[in-house]
Design a protein that fits this description.
alpha/beta, 8-stranded mixed sheet, two-stranded antiparallel ribbon, globular
């Protein structure tokens, strides 16, 4: 059973196992009659061939309150897009597969490029941004949820609990973030959160002093979770990072636009497992090494925007402080895993800490050398201002792809 602790920064909703799930579902069905709920699934085509997605669809077939499901499909050719449409057709909700690599979608991207508004790199950030734009163009949903397509332990309850705080009209929350223990295959997982983000935030507080933003991020039990829900009024002005800093970027946007009293986190699972990225120690442009660099830059950018001054000396001190903090936390993680009968490789964990420490400085150097870098994809409000017909044409391109390859 979960605890009932509130950290005083953001609201935390625990699973105290005191209420039948059917009651929550009935309420969600009631809310959905006047506040439609849609789900976004950013997906690589390769995930259709994995073991997680078939079970996710089997669980989603049971969800009665969902109005619309939007799948952003990356890295697919025409035949794979056709297969994806058949694959997702079993869902009972209104279902749209956006073929991001189609010639029509490339034409949309060329129009954005001509305006200087195109996403600068492919990836989850661009995928999610496009799905948000499509949902804005539909203009029929009050709540949007997002989760990944590689969750091996997926249960429909994850979605039920994730959307409830923002779907309930009597609650003040605009954004809901999922949290859970990262445990799978008898191992303690979640390396980037445990070994980078948590000790980095501790080190930042010791190095640059108290900052409300740092306390805000530290309040999240799993800030890198890919599961969140929000009220759709936020979407037009939401700045989505195009790199691996998506999850931190969304939380930072919530901090900028909402403040902590309209943000909550909710326990959505007892266990959670999905595919694992390689550490990629030999190539800083790949895997968890690239991810750690992008996450650090996302945090530095937000702190700098709030007035923090960073210099190379600060980053060197930050690395040393981080390293000590990470080793101290590793001792606690090791004991926690041992107490619960879970495996943990201390050598591999310390190697990860060393690489993350190097990337803290690397990200700092990149930030100092290029402070004008703008990795954010333009907001849909800006796109609409520059080209008022683009969203309509975007939706028409998706429909034309469906007709041609139906």
């Amino acid at each position: 059973m979960a605890d009932f602790h509130q950290n005083g920064n953001i609201a935390q909703f625990h699973n105290l196992r005191s209420r039948p799930l059917e009651e929550m579902v009935y309420e969600l069905e009631t809310f959905a009659q006047s506040r439609r709920i849609s789900l976004v699934l950013p997906s690589l085509y390769s995930e259709l061939e994995g073991e997680a997605l078939p079970n996710i669809l089997a669980e989603l077939r049971k969800v009665t309150y969902l109005h619309r499901v939007i799948i952003g499909l990356d890295r697919a050719d025409a035949e794979q897009y056709r297969h994806a449409r058949a694959f997702f057709a079993e869902l009972p909700q209104q279902t749209t597969v956006i073929w991001n690599d189609s010639p029509r979608m490339q034409q949309i991207m060329e129009r954005l490029e001509a305006l200087g508004l195109a996403p600068q790199e492919a990836g989850k950030g661009k995928n999610v941004w496009g799905c948000m734009g499509y949902l804005i163009s539909c203009a029929d949903s009050a709540v949007m949820a997002i989760h990944d397509c590689d969750i091996l332990t997926y249960k429909r309850e994850m979605l039920d609990r994730l959307v409830y705080p923002v779907a309930n009209p009597t609650f003040p929350y605009q954004l809901s973030k999922g949290f859970y223990p990262r445990v799978g295959q008898n191992r303690l997982n979640g390396r980037v959160t445990r070994l980078l983000v948590s000790p980095l935030l501790i080190a930042l507080k010791r190095t640059i002093g108290d900052r409300d933003y740092i306390d805000y991020l530290r309040a999240f039990r799993y800030p890198l979770s890919g599961e969140f829900a929000m009220r759709t009024g936020l979407l037009p002005d939401l700045r989505i990072p195009s790199d691996w800093g998506l999850e931190i970027g969304v939380l930072s946007e919530a901090w900028r636009n909402l403040g902590p009293r309209q943000v909550c986190q909710v326990e959505i699972a007892d266990q959670y497992d999905h595919k694992h990225q390689e550490l990629s120690p030999e190539d800083a442009s790949q895997g968890l090494s690239r991810m750690s660099t992008d996450i650090c830059k996302a945090i530095y950018r937000k702190l700098a925007a709030d007035g923090t001054v960073f210099t190379p000396h600060v980053f060197r001190t930050l690395k040393a402080t981080y390293y000590r903090s990470a080793l101290d936390l590793l001792e606690a993680y090791w004991a926690d895993a041992k107490m619960n009968g879970l495996a943990i490789d201390r050598h591999a964990e310390e190697r990860s800490i060393e690489i993350f420490g190097e990337n803290i400085v690397r990200a700092g150097q990149m930030f100092v050398e290029n402070p004008q870098e703008t990795p954010f994809i333009p907001t849909w409000n800006r796109v609409h201002s520059a080209d008022p017909t683009l969203l309509t044409d975007f939706r028409a391109a998706v429909a034309a792809d469906e007709r041609e390859f139906g």
